[in-house]
Amino acid sequence: MAVLNEEQTMLRDMAREWTRNESPVTAWRKVRDADTATGYNASVYGEMAQMGWAGIVIPEAYGGTDFGWLSLGLVIEELGRTLTASPLSASAVAAAAIVLGGSEAQKDRWLPQIASGELVATFALDEGPRHDPEAIKTNVAGGKLSGTKAFVAEGDSAGLFVVAASDGLYLVDGGQAGVSRARRHLTDFRSHAEVTFDAVEADKLADGGDKLLDQVLDRARVVASAEMLGMAQQAFETTLDYLKQRRQFDQVLSTFQALQHRMAGLFSDIELMRSAVEAGLAAIDAGGDTRQAALLAKTKANEVGHAMSREMIQLHGGIGMTDEYDAGFYLKRMRVLEAVWGNTAYLRDRFARLGGY
Length: 357
Description:
The protein is an alpha+beta fold. It has helices at 6-22, 25-34, 42-50, 69-81, 88-101, 104-116, 212-245, 257-286, 291-316, 327-339, 344-354, and strands at 121-124, 139-141, 144-153, 160-165, 168-173, 179-182, 192-201, 203-205, 247-248, 251-252. It has a four-stranded mixed beta sheet with strand order 1-4-5-8, covered by helices on one side. It has a four-stranded antiparallel beta sheet with strand order 2-3-7-6, with no helix packed on it. A two-stranded antiparallel ribbon has the order 9-10. α5 (88-101) packs antiparallel against α6 and α7 packs antiparallel against α10 (327-339). The longest helix is centred in the middle third of the chain and has 34 residues, at 212-245.
């Protein structure tokens, strides 16, 4: 477990208290039942922005707090515990692209709006059902960007897109006439829009060089992993509580040695997952080459998140898949996050290639 400073401890505790009191899973049920394209409650995100969460990774000169990626991960983890839907992760990744590769003019224009929560931003990369950064067909001709991005997180509400084209990353104002959005219905009931750009004005991020895409992807992978960590931890605790009160054959389930062994194994796996995720966040804060740390974090998150969400259903029994219980929500959201920014097979292959294998 990472060693937190006083400010980080206060931030984590504040996020934990706020999510449990103001945004429990029952709040997510209301968002799910509302079935809106945006997939989150705008007023709730406004509260997050007022607490400064939208600007955690944005420098103070542009309206942020510059608390770093480990601090953001602590907040995202707590949001994952209660399945709180918000564009915080997507906006943070988009903001990182601007911080890393934007000009002063681009930073001055966009970062203060993102930090205040006034603007929702997102990163648009993949153009098919699978993550493949090498298959980008979106192109820019005469200063106009054209292409289609599939399953863009928060694409329904984003006012700014960081778009991956064949020759780099571009900023696209979502209010232009050539930007069209089609809602995609995934099992987690969040916003995953197909966004089409038809000869729209695009402003290139030029300062990041050839490594900019990898740097942004590193941050996207680790942030997703932090949410999965929170979900896995809560799934474990919820399942353990259930086993302690559910009786079968006149015995409490938690007294069965076989189930104790399964829970012990899951506990160990989640601790390994935590180490990998926190190491990824710390690596980003430290600077340098973060590719392997990010790949390891997302790979471990995929593996453990998959196992824990599956075991949550198994150990609850058939009732776990009913809408009365929360177990199904964790399973569905976890499966979607497993696929974003690379599934386990892709990430393992990528890690091996970076190691020269």
